Structures are given as structure tokens and as C-alpha cells.
């Protein structure tokens, strides 16, 4: 389920809870009646702030330190999707195809996380292209 749908469902659920006549603690009890409402508000705010469970979770935004993106610079042929005997024209065509796929204009509608991933992938593609073209020109 997309994150936006989850957020909308969470807000709708909280509104339905507030509007429903059934509460965990009745509202006519002084002090105690509003604790469950405050708990629901707190959970909605906590959820919408981006708290994530699982590895690297536990704080808004995942709480993990920024890692350098994994690059496949050890095998530039695999990164561009060409075989090891590819000529300069084939390398250039594969490079253009990959750049078109990960270009910032092509991923601008996606979330920030995917834009950053595409940016790092594009850098790796450019490095692989430079390595392969250097090898092809040296032959």
C-alpha cells in the first residue's frame, strides 16, 4: 500500500475514533476520559512523522547514518549491461539508454529517496562509462 494511502487511512481512522460514541475510557470521566484521545493523537503524529520499525528504524526518517551508495564500479560492464567485448558504439548506446532511465527529469515525480538513489546510480553509470571508454580507446 502506498505511504500516502496509509497516511490518509490513519487520519480517517483517528477521526472516526474521535467521532464515535465508543471510547476506551468514557469522556465523562474527568482527566481519564481524554487520555485515550490523546493517545490516538500521539500515535497519529508519531506515525505521520515517519517512524519506521525494523532494521535502522526507531526514529523519524529511519535514524540511520547516511551511507555511501553502493556502486558496481568493480564491474562497469554489468552496470551498463554490455558484454566484455563490447565496442565503443555499443558502450555509448548502453550508456545513453541507462542515462535516459535514471535522468533527474525522469525521476522528478518520484519521492526524494528514489531521486537520491537515481542520482547515485547516474554517477555510477557515468563513472562506468568513463572507465569503459578509456579501455576502448586504449585498444
**Range of strand content:** under 5%
CATH topology description of the largest domain: Helix Hairpins
Average pLDDT over all residues: 75
N-to-C order of helices and strands: HHHHH
| Biggest pleated sheet | none
Count of helix runs: 5
Q: Supply the CATH superfamily name of the largest domain.
A: DnaJ domain
The CATH architecture classification of the largest domain is Orthogonal Bundle
Flag low-confidence runs: 58-73
How do the strands and helices of this protein lay out in sequence?
Elements (H helix, E strand, L loop, with lengths): L2 H17 L15 H14 L27 H5 L7 H15 L9 H27 L1
Structure description:
- This protein is an all-alpha fold and 139 residues long.
- It has two domains: 3-48; 76-138, DnaJ domain (Helix Hairpins, Orthogonal Bundle), CATH 1.10.287.110.
- Helix content is 56%, strand content 0%.
- Helix 1 runs antiparallel to helix 2 and helix 4 runs antiparallel to helix 5 (112-138).
- The longest helix is centred in the C-terminal third of the chain and has 27 residues, at 112-138.
- The radius of gyration is 25 Å and the shape is rod-shaped.
- The termini are far apart.
- The relative contact order is 0.09.
Amino acid at each position: 500500500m502506498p505511504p500516502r494511502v496509509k497516511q490518509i487511512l490513519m487520519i480517517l481512522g483517528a477521526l472516526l475514533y474521535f467521532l464515535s460514541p465508543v471510547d476506551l475510557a468514557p469522556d465523562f470521566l474527568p482527566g481519564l476520559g481524554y487520555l485515550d484521545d490523546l493517545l490516538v493523537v500521539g500515535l497519529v503524529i508519531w506515525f505521520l512523522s515517519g517512524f519506521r520499525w525494523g532494521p535502522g528504524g526507531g526514529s523519524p526518517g529511519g535514524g540511520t547514518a547516511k551511507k555511501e551508495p553502493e556502486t558496481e564500479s568493480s564491474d562497469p560492464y554489468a552496470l551498463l549491461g554490455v558484454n566484455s567485448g563490447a565496442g565503443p558504439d555499443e558502450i555509448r548506446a548502453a550508456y545513453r539508454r541507462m542515462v535516459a532511465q535514471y535522468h533527474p527529469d525522469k525521476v522528478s515525480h518520484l519521492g526524494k529517496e528514489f531521486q537520491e538513489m537515481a542520482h547515485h546510480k547516474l554517477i555510477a553509470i557515468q563513472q562506468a562509462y568513463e572507465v569503459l571508454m578509456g579501455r576502448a580507446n586504449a585498444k
